UniProtKB/TrEMBL annotation:
<dbReference type="InterPro" id="IPR016160">
    <property type="entry name" value="Ald_DH_CS_CYS"/>
</dbReference>
<keyword id="KW-0520">NAD</keyword>
<dbReference type="GO" id="GO:0004491">
    <property type="term" value="F:methylmalonate-semialdehyde dehydrogenase (acylating, NAD) activity"/>
</dbReference>
<dbReference type="Pfam" id="PF00171">
    <property type="entry name" value="Aldedh"/>
</dbReference>
<dbReference type="InterPro" id="IPR016162">
    <property type="entry name" value="Ald_DH_N"/>
</dbReference>
<dbReference type="InterPro" id="IPR016161">
    <property type="entry name" value="Ald_DH/histidinol_DH"/>
</dbReference>
<protein>
    <recommendedName>
        <fullName>methylmalonate-semialdehyde dehydrogenase (CoA acylating)</fullName>
        <ecNumber>1.2.1.27</ecNumber>
    </recommendedName>
</protein>
<dbReference type="GO" id="GO:0006210">
    <property type="term" value="P:thymine catabolic process"/>
</dbReference>
<dbReference type="InterPro" id="IPR016163">
    <property type="entry name" value="Ald_DH_C"/>
</dbReference>
<feature type="domain" description="Aldehyde dehydrogenase">
    <location>
        <begin position="15"/>
        <end position="477"/>
    </location>
</feature>
<dbReference type="InterPro" id="IPR010061">
    <property type="entry name" value="MeMal-semiAld_DH"/>
</dbReference>
<dbReference type="GO" id="GO:0006574">
    <property type="term" value="P:L-valine catabolic process"/>
</dbReference>
<keyword id="KW-0560">Oxidoreductase</keyword>
<dbReference type="InterPro" id="IPR015590">
    <property type="entry name" value="Aldehyde_DH_dom"/>
</dbReference>
C-alpha cells in the first residue's frame, strides 16, 4: 500500500498521526494512505519556504527558467506514470488524464518565458530630470489549495508561475487524489529546484485553515467549491493576505434554432459527461430556443447516452469513468431524486447503470432531465456529476436572462450559425469565459482563467498574465540625481 507524507525542504516527511484512505473509485479498493498534516508539519513547510525565499528571490530569472525547462522534460518523460495515477485515483479515462496533464504543462511553457512579463515599466524624464520606473517584486511565501478533479493541472496553474516570479510555495492538494501532485512535486526537486522553494503538505480542511492563518503566508490561490472559496477569501482578507479563490459553476449552453443539432449533441455529450461531469467548466444546463429544436436535441442526446461507454478509465474503449467517491455518488443520486420530485422529466436515468466486473465502483450513467425550470434545485445547485438539465425558452433574450440571473458565472457558450446572435450573446452574457460553438472555452495558458459572480472571489484570475500580477507586488521608484545648475531649495507645493 502506498503511503504519502509531505515534501518539505526537498525531503519526504511523515509524522504518522492522522491519515486518510485513498480509493480507486472504479473498484472501491483502497490504493493509498495519505497523511493529514498537523500544525507541526504546516509550520515546518512554511518555515522551509520562508528560509528558501532569501536566496530564491535573488536567483536570476534565466536560472529559474532553466529549472522549469528541466521540469517540463521530466514531466513529459513521466507522463504515463502521472496519467495512471490520475485515472487510478480520480477515475477519469486515461485519454482525458493525458489532456489534463497537457493543459498543466502549458503553464510551465508559459512560466519559462515569464521574464517578458516581469520586465516592468520605465519612463525617463517623467518630470524635469526625474526618472520613474515600476518593478514587480515577489510577495514571499504563497500557498495553493487545490480540488480533487484536476489533481495535476490545477496545481500547475499555480506554483510554476508563483515560483518563477520569485516566490516560494506550499501546495496543499486534495486529499482525495494526492498521488499525482505529490509525484510532480518530487520531480520538481529532481529538476533542481532548491530545497524549500516548492513544498507540499497533504491534508484536509485543518491543513488549509492552518496555512491561511499563518502570518508568514502572503498570498493564497484556492480552487474548489464556492462555500469553501468564499470562506477562504473572507479569512484571507481578515489576515491581510492576498487571495484569489475560484469556486463552483453551473455552465449554460444556449442552443439557437439555427444550430447544427448533431454537432450540438456531440459537443454536449463531451462537455456534460466528460470526466463524469466533474469539471468546473462542464456544461450542466442546455437552454434551447424553441420546442422544435429542444425535441430534436433531447432525442439526439438520448440516442447518444444509450451508447455511452462507461467503465474503468483504464479501458481505452470507455468514454466516462466513475465519480470520485461513494459519498459523492450518493449526493448526485439525491439530486436526481430531487429533480424527479420537483417535476422535471427524466429522459435518461444514469442510476440504472451496471458495469460488469466493477460492481463496487462509484459509477453513474449519463442522466438528462428535460423541462427543467429555474426554481428547481437541480438547476440552482452545482451537481458536479453526469447530469444535464435541458430548459426550454422562447428567444435569445430569455436565454440570456436565465444565464445572467444564475448565481454562478464561470463559463457559458452559444451554438449558432448567426454571427450577430453570437456577438450579442458574448457582449451581454455575465460569465467569465464564453464559447461560440466551443462548449468548453477554457483559456490557453497565455490568457487567464476565471469566472464571474459566485464562481470567483478576488480580482485577478488564475494563470496567464493575471497570475503574474497576482504573485507580484509593484514597486515604483522615482529617481533624481543632483544637477549643479538646478534649484534645490525647499519646495512646499506639488510641482505644477
Ligand atoms: P472542495 O471545496 O471540497 O475542496 C477543495 C480544497 O479545499 C481541497 O484541498 C480540500 O481539502 C480543501 N477544503 C475542503 N473543505 C475545506 C474547508 N472547509 N476549509 C478549508 N479548506 C477546505 O472542492 P472539491 O470537492 O475538491 O472540488 C470540486 C469543486 O471545485 C467544485 O465545486 C468545482 O466546481 C470546483 N472547481 C472549480 C474550478 C474553477 O476553476 N473555478 C476548477 C476546478 C474545480
Amino acid at each position: 500500500m502506498k503511503y504519502l507524507g509531505h515534501i518539505i525542504n526537498g525531503d519526504v516527511f511523515s509524522e504518522s498521526k492522522r491519515t486518510l484512505s485513498v480509493f480507486n473509485p472504479a473498484t472501491a479498493q483502497q490504493t493509498a494512505d495519505v497523511e493529514l498534516a498537523s500544525q507541526v508539519i504546516v509550520d515546518e513547510a512554511v518555515i522551509a519556504a520562508q528560509n528558501a525565499m532569501k536566496s530564491w528571490q535573488l536567483t536570476p530569472i534565466n536560472h529559474r527558467a532553466k529549472i522549469m525547462f528541466r521540469m517540463k522534460v521530466l514531466i513529459e518523460q513521466n507522463a504515463d506514470k502521472i496519467c495512471n495515477m490520475l485515472t487510478e485515483e480520480h477515475g477519469k479515462v486515461i485519454d482525458d488524464a493525458r489532456g489534463e496533464l497537457a493543459r498543466g504543462i502549458e503553464n510551465i511553457d508559459f512560466a519559462c518565458g515569464i521574464a517578458q512579463l516581469l520586465k516592468g515599466e520605465h519612463n525617463s524624464n517623467i518630470s524635469t530630470n526625474i526618472d520613474s520606473w515600476s518593478e514587480f517584486k515577489p510577495l514571499g511565501v504563497v500557498v495553493g489549495i487545490t480540488p480533487f478533479n484536476f489533481p495535476a493541472m490545477v496545481p500547475l496553474w499555480m506554483w510554476p508561475i508563483a515560483i518563477m516570479c520569485g516566490n516560494t510555495f506550499v501546495l496543499k492538494p486534495s486529499e482525495q487524489a494526492p498521488s499525482a501532485p505529490f509525484f510532480i512535486c518530487e520531480l520538481a526537486q529532481q529538476a533542481g529546484l532548491p530545497a524549500g522553494v516548492l513544498n507540499l503538505v497533504n491534508g484536509d480542511k485543518i491543513a488549509s485553515e492552518l496555512l491561511i492563518n499563518d502570518p508568514c503566508v502572503k498570498a493564497v490561490s484556492f480552487v474548489g467549491s464556492t462555500p469553501v472559496a468564499k470562506s477562504i477569501y473572507q479569512q484571507a482578507a481578515l489576515n491581510n493576505m492576498r487571495c484569489q479563490a475560484l469556486g463552483g459553476a453551473k455552465n449554460h449552453a444556449v442552443v439557437m434554432p439555427d444550430a447544427d443539432i448533431d454537432f450540438v449533441a456531440n459537443s454536449l455529450m463531451g462537455a456534460a459527461f466528460g470526466s463524469c461531469g466533474e469539471r468546473c467548466m462542464a456544461i450542466s444546463v442546455a437552454v434551447v430556443i424553441g420546442d422544435e429544436c429542444a425535441d430534436l436535441l433531447v432525442q439526439s442526446l438520448k440516442q447518444r447516452i444509450d451508447g455511452l461507454k462507461v467503465g474503468s478509465g483504464f479501458d481505452t474503449q470507455n468514454e466516462m469513468g466513475p465519480l470520485i467517491s461513494k459519498v459523492h455518488k450518493e449526493r448526485v443520486e439525491k439530486h436526481i431524486e430531487s429533480g424527479i420530485e420537483q417535476g422535471a422529466k427524466l429522459v435518461s436515468d444514469g442510476r440504472q447503470l451496471f458495469v460488469e466486473g466493477f460492481e463496487s465502483g462509484y459509477f453513474l450513467g449519463g442522466t438528462v432531465f428535460d423541462h427543467v425550470t429555474s426554481d428547481m434545485d437541480i438547476y440552482q445547485q452545482e451537481i458536479f456529476g453526469p447530469v444535464l438539465c435541458v430548459m426550454r425558452v422562447k428567444n435569445l433574450e430569455a436565454a440570456l436572462a436565465l444565464v445572467n440571473k444564475h448565481q454562478y458565472g464561470n463559463g457559458t457558450c452559444i451554438f449558432t450559425q448567426n454571427g450577430s446572435a453570437a456577438h450579442y450573446f458574448s457582449e451581454n452574457v455575465a460569465a467569465g469565459m464564453v464559447g461560440i460553438n466551443v462548449p468548453l472555452p477554457v483559456p490557453m495558458s497565455c490568457h487567464s482563467f476565471g469566472g464571474w459572480k459566485q464562481s470567483i472571489f478576488g480580482d485577478l484570475n488564475a494563470y496567464g498574465p493575471d497570475a503574474v500580477r497576482f504573485y507580484t507586488q509593484r514597486k515604483t521608484i522615482t529617481s533624481r540625481w543632483k544637477i549643479p545648475s538646478q534649484d534645490h531649495s525647499a519646495q512646499f507645493s506639488f510641482p505644477s
